[in-house]
Design goal:
Largest sheet: 5 strands, antiparallel
Number of strands: 9
Mean pLDDT: 93
Shape: globular
Strand content: 35-45%
Strand order of the largest sheet: 5-2-7-8-9
Number of domains: 1
């Protein structure tokens, strides 16, 4: 993982992030270091941890994530499952080494 790319300041007990490529719907399979159309769900969930010093959750975007536009989706799930409701979603533009601009929060409706 690279340096911290983003800090999430939500209060999450078991923070997890997933990256979904906009357009193709491919998901970052962290276990196999590849974009995949139908990966094993658990392989797409990247566990995060709160940093008490910064009072937030640092996100290090996977170093092998190809350049492109992604939805960065946050969950609060100790055991990730495809039925988990997401807590927030941000659209990002990833250069392959850093974020281009600021993440854009997307409106979500939790049911």
């Amino acid at each position: 993982m690279k340096e911290i790319s983003y800090i999430n300041y939500q209060a999450l007990t078991d923070p997890v992030v997933r990256f979904v490529e906009v357009g193709s719907g491919k998901q970052w399979d962290d276990e196999n270091s590849e974009l995949a159309l139908k990966p094993t769900y658990g392989d797409t969930a990247i566990a995060l941890a709160e940093d008490a010093y910064i009072n937030g959750i640092p996100v290090r975007i996977p170093e092998d994530l190809p350049a492109g536009n992604y939805d960065m989706i946050f969950y609060d799930a100790s055991t990730p499952d495809n039925a988990d409701a997401f807590k927030s979603v941000f659209r990002i533009e990833w250069s392959g080494s850093s974020l281009n601009g600021m993440p854009i929060p997307l409106p979500i409706t939790l049911v």
